[in-house]
Amino acid sequence: MDADFESPFMSKMSFLAYRKLREVVDKHDIPIDAPRIVFVGETSTGKSMLVQNFLGFPCTFSQAGVATRCPVAYQLRYNPDVPEYRVIKPSGITPQMLAGRLRDHMKNIEQESKFSKDPYEIELESSFYPDLEILDVPGLIAGNESEDRDAVEKSKLLQL
């Protein structure tokens, strides 16, 4: 690990400990589930921007005037051979294209319906990431129960 190492998730020493643990898990073929962080809150409170700060590169669409219309499930994978960031899913795109792809997906949902329960799945790998799952859900709609709020709260991934 180089002296300039900075992980968006943890200190250099913590990440070094994670990497050593990861080596043991891989060597002995021990199945473990990655920790999961779920970002939940009211509409337009900065959940997606917080996720972007965690990921360490511009990848959200929050400046495009489009709100999160479905859960976005990020699967982060540690890969010591990837020096920066690589998008595994959706396939065929670069990290720089991810924000545009998300924006277009959210615009389509907004035009077809208001929200979707189906998650948009993104898998990223990097030598900077520990194995981690992040779920960014659409903002909760304040006030009385509504169909939109119900769609958000009954998201498939929140039930896991």
From TrEMBL:
Question: InterPro entries annotated for this entry?
Answer: Dynamin, Dynamin_N, P-loop_NTPase
- Where are the bilayer-spanning segments? none
Give every Dynamin N-terminal domain span: 37-148
Q: Which Pfam families match?
A: Dynamin_N (PF00350)
SUPFAM superfamilies in UniProt: P-loop containing nucleoside triphosphate hydrolases
What is this protein identified as?
Dynamin N-terminal domain-containing protein
What organism is this sequence from? Rotaria socialis
